[in-house]
Amino acid sequence: MELKVNMSEYLPLRDVVFNTLRQAILRGELKPGERLMEIQLANKLGVSRTPIREAIRKLELEGLVLMIPRKGAEVADISEKSLRDVLEVRKVLEELAVKLTCDKIKSAQIGELRHAAEGFRKTLKSSDITQIAEADVRFHDVIYEATDNQKLIQLLNNLREQMYRYRIEYLKRQEAYPQLLAEHEEIIRRIENKEKEQAAEIVCKHIDNQVEAVMDVIRTKKG
Predict the structure, then answer these.
(1) pTM, whole model, 2 decimals?
(2) Chain centroid offset of residue 18 CA
């Protein structure tokens, strides 16, 4: 795995290193159970061990890293509770977003939404999970943008990276793709017809299906 620090960020080095490691964990580049060796990470990122150590401490506070006695730091597993905590919040915000979108969306944005859905469909033919996830993010981003509510968009963007870890796990399940495509199409249809309650209902179902699928992954790993 190749890690790269974005030195163009106008942040102290310790924060840049923290953001780099955090993103690598959330995107699955550093996998659950993987040990975080200070010297190895410092060499990969071209920094001293001090910002690595500080970043690991902050990641532990976020629950993304565990300190194991006599072993050191390792990437935390995805837990059922962390999954539910994040996706319960996401469901409430997405339900609000789709209702606002039904009221405010413009015809050009309907076109963008259809284009994003088609882009997602095309990426499913690839084996690049990151590319597929980015296309899925773009579909939902069009809905967020159509709300014209900057506070709501900001809240959803703050959840984006935390959701990304679970989105990746879900999208590894190719058997879920037909259902995902059907749900995207129904979301578009309900929004276009300005059917707020029905749009909210399918969005909630969309997220519940993701929860159950990732729960199955977690339980399988435990078994």
Answers:
(1) 0.79
(2) 18
